[in-house]
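Backbone geometry tokens:
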Amino acid sequence: MSVRNGLIALLAERPMGVYELRKEFDARTGGTWPLNIGQVYTTIQRLVRDGLVEPVPEEYGPADVDPYRLTETGYTEAEQWWSRPVDRATPTRDELAIKLALAVTSPEVEVATVVHAQRVESMRALRDYTRLKARLPEEPTASDLAWGLVLDNLIFGAEAEVRWLDHVEASVARAQVAHQASGPTQPTTDGPAPAATRRATSTRSRR
């Protein structure tokens, strides 16, 4: 989630202070990706440094807040962000994908157990998102519509995750069957010993 671009988009509507920016961001996204005030402040300071945002002069802003507004360069950046597709060439790091990729290459990890635990959590999340979606009014406001679209994204993502976990489980099972069908292999000195051998050796060495 690009907090930087999200704040630029909000400032394109009107000048806002740091607290109002956080409140608007959380309200528009249903609090799905909540921001802390320090994160907003740090991001705004970087935007000021980059010439995209500037403080509103005191004579134009409320006395009790420090509002910011976009520069001309900032407005150009906002327009380009709306028209520019989100780059998928470099995927974000997905903890679950990394976890399972490491699990299937770790001899001491029971992949089926990892998959089962995650499936339970993914199904729980899917039920929660679906219940939240059902609570939206039939005639939604703009904020309701925005929150509903975020929920749709989360629901579709959870459904895809469950399907992918089924695929992982089936792929691992097929690989195990193929490995067993190929017959036992003789141990070599080219790599680490199997986990059971390492444990047995460690036990003998402690006696």
Observations:
- The longest strand covers residues 53-55.
- The beta strands are 53-55, 68-70.
- The longest helix spans residues 142-181.
